[in-house]
Amino acid sequence: FTKLDDAQAAGTRESNKCVLILTEGDSAKTLAVSGLSDVGRKYLGVFPLRSKLLNIQQASGSVVAANAEVQNLIKILGLKKR
User: Whole-prediction pTM value?
Assistant: First the structure.
């Protein structure tokens, strides 16, 4: 995930305090990252979405599984299938 700016505490014992900011594209990510210098990067990460996010409540499992953006978020957040 080359475009992910991870929180410094992500993946540590303090990861439950972390927040992932999702932006609409790279330019919005740049703006968000510039604002983070004021509040710090320990618990805040930023990831730019490439397009409108899929509404997974209305999509079939196969459509969700085939959606690259949703799969990126699942991996970034460390979610696992049950």
Answer: 0.84
